[in-house]
Amino acid sequence: MSKKQIQKDISCMDDFDPESLTPDKALEKIFTSLSRMTQTEEVPVREALQRVLANDIKSGINVPSGRNSAMDGYAIHAEDLPESGTRTLHLAGSSFAGQPFHGNVEKGECVRIMTGAIMPGTTDTVVIQEHAEKQDDTAIIIGTDTKPCSNVREAGEDLAVGDLVLQKGMRLAPADIGLLASLGIAQVPVFRKLRVAFFSTGDELRSIGEELEDGMIYDSNRYTLFGMLSRLGADIIDMGVVKDDPALLEQAFIEARDKADVLLTSGGVSVGEADYVKDVLTRLGDVNFWKVAMKPGRPLTFGKLGDTFFFGLPGNPVSVMVTFYQFVQPALRQLMGENYSPPILLKVPCLSSLRKRPGRVEYQRGVLEQQDDGSMAVRKTGKQGSGILRSMADANCFIVLPLESSGVNPGDSVDVQLFNGLV
Q1: Residue 75 pLDDT
Q2: pLDDT below 50 — which residues of the chain?
Q3: How many separate helices (H) and strands (E) can be counted in the chain?
Q4: How deeply is 396 buried, as exposed, middle or buried, from its count of CB atoms within 10 A (0-12, 13-18, 19+)?
Q5: What is the CA radius of gyration of the chain?
Q6: Nearest alpha-carbon partner for 221 in 356, 309, 328
Q7: Helix or strand (DSSP H, E) at 321
Q8: How far apart, in whole angstroms, are the C-alpha atoms of residue 290 and residue 178?
Q9: How many Å apart are CA 133 and CA 136, to the nearest integer?
Q10: How far apart are the first and last CA of the chain?
Q11: How far apart, in Å, are the Cα atoms of 329 and each of 76, 174, 289, 311, 422?
Q12: What sign results for the dihedral spanned by CA atoms 162, 163, 169, 175?
């Protein structure tokens, strides 16, 4: 009896799928489809942290406002610096930050001055206190170890009137908040927050607090998504768990379309009999693509529901995080009005042996750490299955293995993408 081979469909187990886009091509298609946020609002400067700046900020004042001392010491005229030996200068008074000296400073005189204090009169040099010998309360002796115009900060040295301080599209960091405050800016123009709705799909999912029956699991994806969206500063709409029912999914899609800028789902985008997400999206909106040549995370759907952008993420916990960091987060940042820059890749030696076959870009989880000789190297976190969320919790980076890679031996150089560069 002859054996007949069965016809097989492409699955997530296969390393090459001609219908899958490369990650670069998928990201390009996403960016081409996006439009930036245009709606803005003004918020108090203390509430502007991690918001995206909606306008350029220019300085309306000089910072510092006037010429001032960079050190504690004595303000003098440069002509009074001795060419050799020492010179005695009469002490005419003191200048403190916020309490300037208002008198005249003649040649042969000096003023005791503190860091940040306005330089008195026509003085142009500060002799630091360690280089001056106080003779009594009326005079000091200085030597030849100070150069003319030393230890003085000019008005506008940090920022001058009209200087571009912060650019539109920046995500404001703590230093930016301080910079805005130094200019006396109380209200900051920012883009409004992006409204992002999300839900998980699956009859097997239970929420925290519910009892687990046989075959049931707790839904972790909504919690990782909530955490990643919170760090981006989105307005979050958690729609819970939706059962594997086309009618319920359609209802959830319509609800999200009516109140969110972006909808994220996890699960239900593969080719199983209960994977309905792609079919519902096809009926209600448009599918741009639904497979990417990557591991983990091949079944990734991107499209639109009316004016709402849609990302259908895989159901496995690691796949959710990998696809979010590689595709959803860059998209959300651009939608928020942010000037997006790709994550920095570092090339370092790998301490582990990594198995891989050509055909997909792999994002393996690793730990980048300093070696005894001060150099940096990376090692994998252990088992790399897409359901092993521990591999993400233990990691601080992705080890990015290109499409054509056939594996890594210990000592080989690999590209590393730090998690800190993704958030």
Answers
A1: 98
A2: 7-8, 12, 273-274
A3: 8, 26
A4: middle
A5: 31
A6: 328
A7: helix 317-323
A8: 44
A9: 9
A10: 60
A11: 56, 21, 17, 11, 8
A12: negative
Torsions phi, psi of 277, nearest 5? -60, -50
Per-residue pLDDT, 213: 80
- The model's pTM is 0.83
Tokens of 202: 């699956």
Cβ contacts of residue 282 below 8 Å, gap of 6+?
none
pLDDT at 330: 96
The closest alpha carbon to 55, from 36, 41, 70, 74, belongs to: 41
User: Which residues on adjacent β-strands are paired with residue 346?
Assistant: 416
39 φ, ψ to 5°? -75, 135
Q: Which residues contact 368 (CB under 8 A, 6 or more apart)?
A: 346, 348, 376, 377, 378, 396, 397, 416, 418
Contact by Cβ (8 Å): 277, 301: yes
By DSSP bridging, strand 286-289 and strand 132-136 are unpaired
Reported as a single tens digit per residue, the pLDDT across 331-362 is: 999 999 999 888 899 999 999 999 999 999 99
Residue with tokens 């009896």, as numbered in its chain: 1
Pairwise CA distance, residues 112 & 127, whole Å: 10
Partnered with residue 58 across adjacent β-strands are 164
Residue 419 to residue 226: CA distance in whole angstroms: 17
